[in-house]
Amino acid sequence: MQIKELLRPHINSLVPYSSARDDCAMEGGIHLDANESWYDYSAQGKNRYPDPHHRKARSAISSCLFLPFERTLLTNGSDEAIDLLIRAFCTPGSDSVLIESPTYGEYGIFAKINDVAVCDVLLDGELDLDVKGIKEMIRRKNPKIVFICSPNNPTGKSYDIAKIKEIADFNEAITVVDEAYSDFDPGFSSSASLIDENPRVVVLRTFSKYWGLAASRIGLVVADVEVIAALNKIKAPYNVSLSAQEDVLEALEKKDERKQVLEDILSERIRLSEQLEKLPFVKKVYKSDANFILIKTDDANGIQKLLLDNGIIIRNRSLEPLLSGCLRITIGSRAENDRLLEVLCNA
Ligand SMILES: *Cc1c(COP(=O)(O)O)cnc(C)c1O
Hints:
seven-stranded mixed sheet, globular, four-stranded antiparallel sheet
């Protein structure tokens, strides 16, 4: 199916808000078009509305991350992108999305906020995609969006791109691959490479994890130009602030710093996994392709409480399907990880 046929019909005919900065993006000149303050208290141009198309940030992203400029869109965190995609493609009250639990909670929550049904195909015993089950569900329910999170939160597992491709090609609607943690998997192959052949594939990235800009709220959508055009129509014109756009430029300029921290996280991932495995109450340490580790314990609540009493906060995932007894621990600094292990060893 064409992107046009998949979009909600009224989105196709929607005429978007045209902002003052759309009409004239000229730098310099006398701007009396947007009712801004003429006085710049910040001396950094904060009195002016930012570029609604985020051109400088996107062009830096495009050259640094080798992505075609016209296939990119910045959002207020990838959470905004999830919401925009659901609003663009799913009609409330009749359409559905497909997820594979246990996974990131926001897909289901944004679907429910938009009155869109959620079909759930559990992961298999290896916490891998159940391709056969997913295909069956697609055949039965015709979801408008299939969400796939790889590496998956909270399991930490990257899925084989061949499986993702098989699902995306079988699915006549949109497949969204959330690659929030891909930078932590050295062998990762991005589903962005699938877009050429299958324009219904949409990839989400974020500056909140590897890039260290969670507070700035910057999500990145990589998609076919028709999908990007549709999302541009419905996003708020100034969805990414000037400071956030500038933070992207600065982060990309200092990308070598990130590589050093990545090396540290990857070696800590090995060390923490080995140490956690030795603890008597840890039944399993799952292999992680992300910057967190999932462990199965014999008393998730007790361990969580012990850590909390010692000022260490982790996520309890034990109520999710397939994850009884499971805790998710973010890989911190060496000192933070040492303290975690110290508390656990004395338990
Ligand atoms: C953390 C996370 C994100 C990032 O969300 P932002 O809104 O960009 O901060 C996206 N997807 C998954 C699976 C995550 O765990």
